[in-house]
Amino acid sequence: MDDSAEMRERILCLVMVSLWWADAQADWRADAGYYDLQVELGSSLPDGTGIEVLQSEANAAVPPALSYLPQGTGAPGTFEGTGSFAGKWFTAHSGAGGASGHASAVGTYFYTAGGSISPGVAQVHCYEAEDFITRLSGGENGDPLVFPASVQNHSWVGSFGVEAQDVDALRRLDYMIARDQAVCVTPLNNGNTMYGLLSNAWHSIAVGLKSGNHPQSGTIVDGTGRMKPDLVVGVDLTSFAGPAVASAAALLLDGIRPGLPAADDPRVLKAILLAGASKVNLPAWHRTASNRPYDNVWGAGELNVLNAWHILSAGEKIHSNGSEVGLKGWHHGTTSNTEARRYFFTIPEGRWGATFSAALTWHRTISPPFETTVLSNLDLKIRKADGFVVSGSAVDESSSLVDNVEHVFLRNLPSGQYVLEIPATDLAVDYGLAWEVQLGQGPRLSLSRNESNEPVLALSGLDPFVSYEIEASSELTAGTWDTLISIRTADATASTTATWTDTTTPPSGPRFYRLRWTGGP
Questions:
Q1: pLDDT (mean) for 356-383
Q2: For residue 312, is it left (φ>0), alpha (ψ between -120 and 50) or beta?
Q3: Which CATH code fits 5-257?
Q4: I need a surface site. Which of 173, 218, 237, 428 has the fewest CB within 10 A?
């Protein structure tokens, strides 16, 4: 960020827009599955205790005055919060400053009992945004300084106005994330305008809104066309979506430490959050091509800490060519240059994979002086198998050439054995992988009659991006089934349910109906 009044004014304007709607939020925690997790775990529910966090904020005052803290202080250093921030200890790393209404609202979503899912967080390290960027280049030999926190949230946007300077800042941020193993959340802007900083970063978690009111262009610097956001949250402003995700990260880290050190890695935690992302409230969620890992608007989907916790608690499952890993789990692994990494699992007979979700994340190689980077190209495939023998082409795959994340999501996966596969790569690349199968009964059809005595068919459990045919027969024998109609709900409003009334004149005697899946996307 530059020091110009224009840049400060632009950031200040965005902060002030956030404040107008700060009290109009629905409780995002319900859609994130937090209350269900609360009931499930009871007193053993993690709450972020012991996890130190970092909050950077744009200056909400006119320089040289400084306001960037959730609560004001007359001096730099550490002080205890009051009111809703009682029990929180704030460290004003950027110097003495006043309270910012925006910072206070962000903090509410990040670490308070009234708005977050990590109320146990007690140590909050506060930085003014320009000072944070300066510290990314202010360490020994020009390396980024080491920041004292495991989870960072940066609810601001900006730019130097010079692409090379934005690129340098993003690379330093990515380097810091990889070096310090920090989980970093970088919300997108509200509206259509994409800024260079900080949501173009590769290693962070970029967050948008369930409403779609965020830029949908993808990245614009340091590698254009990468898909953003990674996750969305059902709040009104991205400034609050970011700390909601950061709060979930703190909860998961509380559950990870100290017993699951392999999961204490930003790649693994990001993969778990992405694989756990829900599409329940996003029936139109859809990947348009195999080289596009996300939906164009909603990324991997809506934050869901319940799903993420189930994936984490299933434990680490190591790749194998002769044993299964189960229906959910995660792995902090390394690719091979000689063979694919394979993870076999079986959907039981008579059941369906109502949803199958998997995510793969890895870092680009980057080091001082930050002039060059190397990105290995990893793919993620799901294939059919039988007795650990892989057969046929991929059922689906995510094979982006530009992103450092791959994501596969399928509805209504039939019973049988499958394998999640990361093909061999030229270099050994550390990655985070997570997956979850939620079992169900598959597409269903029920029959009733209307007032005119016409058969009414209710369909549920559908995939909105698959074509289905309703067929009828009076004999239930092969060759006697007639197609009555083809249904593809996504051609209208995407939905997983549909109804159809049979207004045709049926033959005398009984009439039977069945639902046939006839095509893919």
A1: 95
A2: alpha
A3: 3.40.50.200
A4: 428
